Amino acid sequence: MDKIAKDVGDIQSRLLDHKPIINAEIRYFVREFEEKRGHRESRLLESLNKMVPEANEQMLPTDLEGMMSDVIKRLEAANHMAERVQQRELEAQQSTQLQGNMERLKDEWTEFVKEQQRLKEEVDEEHAKAVGQLSTLYSEKKKDLTKFSPL
């Protein structure tokens, strides 16, 4: 029974206890990082640490306020020019719309005049027919009157 318990303990330690494998991986990583790379990363960080202040000195101007006022003036000028362009574009668009509206109104007026002319001709025809009917009616009545009158 002792032998079975010992075998079960060995199997359990091999399957569930990962400490020896993890310790071996840690030793491998440390050896790889320290020995093979030769502190390459620390040298790289030191050189970057030297380059950053040099870049800051070269890149940043000493007269920051003067530069900001110049930038603000340029931005104001650009805004003014953009507003003028927008105003001109709006005026051109309104002019184009006005011309389009004028053309549309002229077309509508022409159509209106044509329609009025057609209606006038219809009324004239009806009037002529009514005058013709009335003249025939009165001429018949006149004939009837002449028949019955003793003159």
Automatic annotation (TrEMBL):
Residues 68-122 form a coiled coil. The keyword Transmembrane does not apply. GO terms for cellular component: BLOC-1 complex; transport vesicle. It holds the Pfam family Muted. Keywords: Coiled coil. It comes from the Eukaryota. The keyword Transmembrane helix does not apply. PANTHER family: BIOGENESIS OF LYSOSOME-RELATED ORGANELLES COMPLEX 1 SUBUNIT 5. Belongs to the BLOC1S5 family. This is Biogenesis of lysosome-related organelles complex 1 subunit 5.
